User: Fold these one by one.
Assistant:
Number 1:
Amino acid sequence: MLINYLKYCYRQAVISLSRNRWLALVSASMIAVSLAILGGFLLAAVNANQAMQNIQSNLEIVVFLEEGAEISTLERKIEQLEGIVHCTFVDKHTGLQEFGRSLGDEALLAELAGEHNPLPDIFRVRAREGELVPLLAGQIEQFPGVEAVDYGRELVQTITGISRWLYWISVCISALLAVGAIFLVGTTIRLSVVIRQEEIGIMKYLGASDWFIRLPFLLEGLTIGWTGTLAAVVALGLAYYQFAALLLEKSPLFFLQPVTSPGMLAAIFGGLLLLGTAMGGLGSVFSIRRFLRV
Amino acid sequence: MIDLFSVSKVYKSGGPPAISCVNLHVEQGEFIFLVGPSGAGKTTLIKLISREELPTSGRILFLNNDTAAYKPPELLRHRRLMGMVFQDFRLLKSKTIYENVALALEVTGRPPQEIKAKVPAVLARVGLAGKEEAFPSELSGGEQQRAGIARAIVRDPLLILADEPTGNVDPETARGLMELFEEINRGGTTVIIATHAWDLVERMKKRVIALDKGRIIKDERQGSFNHAH
Ligand SMILES: Nc1ncnc2c1ncn2[C@@H]1O[C@H](COP(=O)(O)OP(=O)(O)O)[C@@H](O)[C@H]1O
Ligand SMILES: [Mg+2]
């Protein structure tokens, strides 16, 4: 009996959809566009986030020491902090040599060696995870004998700020489009209800239950939602596949690696499916409640 | 089967009652004509029994249940025990005769095998064998009403309510339709027909309830009431 009923609902929904196919198509496209934008930005966001993690975990915390600091005590204290991978002491002499080498001419800075060396002694500290870097840097800065710490704060803060902005802009744009899409689904369903008004009246006389009358319209809205989502997911999936393959093959920068974790991608695409279903469902529920008197 | 106790129906408060203080008892298996001039309240009485309208005062019992106190499932049950026939047939133009009749079984979730068996049988019974695939517009008025009657009886209802079923057909066709109602009634189905086709009513010798200005002015049994059920 339930199977017969579902078959009946499905048949009615298909008939209605083919009657209003243009409006249904526009509604589905609207859902597809809004989901594609949201999904696109979400993918961009998780990738930006991962890139930032990569940058941060490759960032060293450089700890500048005061003149005459207790080097071995400090080293022990730093190494005891949670999340430190290693901590290397670089005295001012070695530091100057490295600096000279990095400039491509070791002799260039030779006269600064010895008494006149302007560089401080430093520790180079590596953290286990990028996220720990700001926290660890803050703790180390408090230790006695530490002059200052540096870990590329500006870069991290800039990237964080940009991605946060992008995230909110994309959420707002998608939300606006989603409202439009829900409205369009509602209009489609309303048209279906109007077209079938006479039939609905007769079905009531024949003893059809409210849900028997309503469910085909709900199914119609859900079908529009699923169609839109499917289009968005397929388009987005193909585009992302290309993007990921390209990056894996020849990333211009070490930290630019695509997110390929199946869990994360499933969460994003699953979320889009839920949203698409919700849009189709909301649109039809809205019209059923307003225009379908059973 | 149906009992009305001092039932009144006022559409516009302060206006004249469409039905006024009606008492009525209907037995299972009766054949009843509701007659009276236009505006007498025949349609209103039918709608009160079909529970499309609720009485302003008084009580209506259907199978000893107060129709005003129905919960949704009981209302559905009430509708499913009745078959309605309309003056304008109310067939869906976009569906074939077969589909129109099948709809009555579909809405109650009957299995397809049952639908496939019952619909042609009931169409044959009303004299529409071979018209399954026709659309309503391809049939005469009388044939369309036969399809409407087929839809009303396909679920073997306890009660048929027909509001001016012969209003849109010529007298010859009307006589045929009345014979069909009589045949249905012989199977034990209660039939209530609102009409002003006086000549037919006179000839059929059934219980006749005459309404005027919302009141019952005459209730006579002219023919033999089939007590088999
Ligand atoms: N939906 C309605 N709203 C207001 N008045 C109505 C309505 N239906 C019927 N009436 C009034 O009730 C009275 C009885 O109408 P009706 O039952 O249709 O009579 P009949 O079917 O015998 O012609 C008439 O005066 C009619 O105008
Ligand atoms: Mg009338």
Number 2:
Amino acid sequence: MKDAEIIAPALETDNVSCVFNVSQGFMKGTKPLRAINGVSLQVPKGEVVGLVGESGCGKSTLANVLLGLQAPTTGDVRYSGTSAAGFSRKDVARRIQPIFQDPYSSLNPTKTIRSIVSQPLRIHNVGDPSEWDAKVDEMLDIVGLPSRSANNYPSQMSGGQRQRVAIARALIMRPEIVICDEPTSALDVSVQSQILNLLQDLKDELGLTYLLISHNLAVVEHLADRVAVMYLGRIVEEGPADKVFANPRHPYTKALLESVLTPDPKLGVPETHLGAVFPNPIDPPSGCSFHPRCVACMDICKSKAPRPISSEGHMAECHLMEGDAQ
Amino acid sequence: MSETVLEVENLTVDIPIASGMLHPVRGISFSVQKGETLCIVGESGCGKSLTSLAMMGLLPKTAQRRTDKLLFRGEEIGDLPERQMSKLRGGAMSMIFQEPMTSLNPAYTIGDQLMEAFRRHVTRDRAVARDRAVYLLEKVGISSAASRLSQYPHQLSGGLRQRVMIAMALMCEPELIIADEPTTALDVTIQAQILHLLAELQDEFDMGLILITHDLGVVARIADKVQVMYAGRTVEEGPVNAIFEEPAHPYTQGLLRCIPVPGKTKRGERLGSVPGIVPNLVGDLEGCMFRNRCPHATAECDTAGEQLAKLSSGDHAHACIRSLADRAAIDASSTKAAE
Ligand SMILES: Nc1ncnc2c1ncn2[C@@H]1O[C@H](COP(=O)(O)OP(=O)(O)OP(=O)(O)O)[C@@H](O)[C@H]1O
Ligand SMILES: Nc1ncnc2c1ncn2[C@@H]1O[C@H](COP(=O)(O)OP(=O)(O)OP(=O)(O)O)[C@@H](O)[C@H]1O
Ligand SMILES: [Mg+2]
Ligand SMILES: [Mg+2]
């Protein structure tokens, strides 16, 4: 049992699906929307796993499932090998803390920054209340906010300043796992670099584990040990970051990497070659769900869903990998 | 011949707060031509959103705006009554807001919200408005657009909400779009598609575009000219090539060192940064506001150094009392002294 615990990933999902029932309009009833569809993902302890993919493909939904904020419709979530079903809300919150995408709606507008940052300490009654103020000041300093801002309200701060507040709040509990959902997309690059350096330092110092959801592939490439690429509710490619970035196997991953905009004014905006057939999670395409947009689409892709194929710890779900092509 | 859509001269915003008068925008000037793209970049909190809200007449109630000029299509709009401003906003001049959740009303379906301005400005005909809404939702990459019309904002992912905002801004074929971080919540393939769409509309309608973004990759690829802001001022402005190839202000130079560039920065390596924090902009301010973070600062910077001065090449200007050559000389002599 001990051994299993040592090698068990900090965070793991086993064939998790999450279905929402979406209204089709007045008097038209509802239809199921499969926001995540059979996702098995492992986040090894002490590593950074980057999760990338199209907007709306289910990344935040997966994050919510991992945080215990959203119950999976089917499948299982495990923390260090133990099923999440055995954990109370509070146990989960002390282990995993989120940093959310939207710093505007995630901060309570009626509370001061001091109160927002110290909230996890109050809820979980951590340490001596007389030390809370000092902890808040320390955290604000770490994320680069002046201590005078402790008495401000979120509405008096810019987007980037608010995201620093959200990060301070997540880290004040010194959690083991941090789920960062677009942690730096509202930040200017000078703060982004500070925050990325900070996340990196805290990881090394405290042995933190991160699931890093980001549209900024340069950021993911910079921080992540492993990368998972999601498309329409499924993980279509997963592997060591250097391999995935150097040698993408799935055509969607290739398109994604080709769309990265490096800061070179001599270049324009690249063509994505993905076509305009956007996927609809309510009515997903037959066979491989990527086939209507795929440059390498074959006949089999329209009828048969590809299965995951791994080699050298690098998985992709694509018929091109299967030798079914011939 | 190029025609100016928007011209702003010496825009100032002051906000009274508990500790005194805050000066978040301190004399900004710029202009946008038809079909042109101006990108504004700068530290979070430097006043980019307030600058754009000021142009749209949407500042918070307590804020005070002053301008020497605020011309839209050559006409002064600084003193227009709110009723006429609101007419302009929904129609000829539109804005994509930084925070989709606060600017979408959670109580109405996205269909109603998309069609509202169009039915006010263009035609009351519901079917026409609906067709245009569906057309634009498809253009910004939203599938089964017709069925999305009946959804509420909270049922959409962050990226879908942002695309709804973009579609909403395009409903009435505006002549000027001010987009505040329009693609930050989007994945790079959709970002590329939306940037193509904006370029296409710019060609078609000669639309002027002001884009506020932290993404220097986007700036490099689509800007005609760039304005770098720091602490409420413009510290550098110029054509996009000049900004990326010969950045002149120490802040711009620092910014360009902060971003991880695949292939250039090593994985896990520490990124460059601009150490220090933005000064408090409350009360009387003097000297260069960047001096507390500037590696080249000297005593002179306490009193001077915020006026834009042209650099040798035409439209490129920066706000530093020293030329590039002077700074290099000072740095060289100070390293010698240190040895
Ligand atoms: N409460 C809900 N009710 C109905 N549908 C939902 C709900 N939450 C999410 N969805 C749908 O589930 C899908 C996945 O959404 P999710 O927010 O996980 O995407 P995402 O990958 O995080 O996207 P983004 O990159 O834009 O943030 C979307 O189609 C979204 O519209
Ligand atoms: N209603 C307000 N009352 C007081 N201060 C405000 C108000 N709105 C903004 N500020 C302050 O004005 C400054 C400029 O804010 P603004 O939102 O324009 O920044 P920004 O450049 O858009 O930043 P970001 O890149 O983070 O969005 C910030 O320091 C902010 O705290
Ligand atoms: Mg999301
Ligand atoms: Mg802003």
